[in-house]
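4-hydroxythreonine-4-phosphate dehydrogenase structure dump, as promised
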Amino acid sequence: MIPSPVLAVTSGEPAGVGPELTLQLALDERLPGRVVAVGDPRLLSERAALLDLDVTLIELQPGEPVPEARSGVLPVWPVALRAPCRPGELAVANAGYVLETLDVAIEACLGGRADAMVTAPLHKGVILDAGHAGFRGHTEYLRDACGVDEVVMMLATDSALHAGEPDWRGSAALRVALATTHLPLRQVADAITEASLERILRIVNADLTRWFGLVTPRIAVCGLNPHAGEGGHLGHEEIEVIEPCLERLRQEGMALDGPLPADTLFTPRHLAGIDAVLAMYHDQGLPVLKYAGFGRAANITLGLPIVRTSVDHGTALDLAGRGIADTGSLRVATALAAEMANRGSAATTP
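structure tokens r here:
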């Protein structure tokens, strides 16, 4: 019997909802893999007691195998807090702790001890305030730690406009990748070049094949301007940058639609048969995806040598320690991580 994938879950900002969401994963009888938390066992124990969560923590020693999942049991790779922590109260001293949890998970994935990593939310402001001036977020930190030049942020929801209970098996009905991420709008147009767009589309195409098993993924590409430039009347980026890039990649066999007006692309008729959408900037694509499936979506980093997924929300300091935070996004992220790990493993098996 092939063992289920090992999923390293970093518990995120200790004052936020990450620790309690990680604990609640252990109570789910349908976990798709062997979840191991990366965090402070004492913090997790205190949060479990506060919320009356019946979870048994098992601290694993270096090299000790992660056991198969059992409801109510949470293995932990221990990382010590730098300072005491209370729900909802940020402590700059714990910024190093948060980064260390990431380092442990990254090293485990690169070293073959974990098959994927799933990240609970962190608080960028605290990490910047602690003196890590170059920190921009999970995505860029993982890029640098893994030694790659380019990564792509993609969000996926398990079901777009799907009624009833979400399907936690990891299937994704709507995927939106971003050509640019956290940039002021004034900088977006200059950041989109033929070279950058080509790199991003190659990553999206390759990883949809590698991690999602799509032989020839069909990608719809948004225009940058309203009405995709209206034939040059509302901007020239589509004519001068986007269309030449898409045509060149189509000649190589990529299935690319566009550039398309974003205001009509995100409708059921235009999304039919589409495996992913590439939006030109953050707020062009993500509001639509989050409206369709907030709490049922996950953030995926493409272009890494490892699998990484995350939640679609922040630290929710106002909810921390109250037991009312929704576990939906973390469950979707965990399911997608397991699915991607299994796909990647199958693709490399002789």
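The first strand starts at residue 6 and ends at 10.
lmk if u need the other ones
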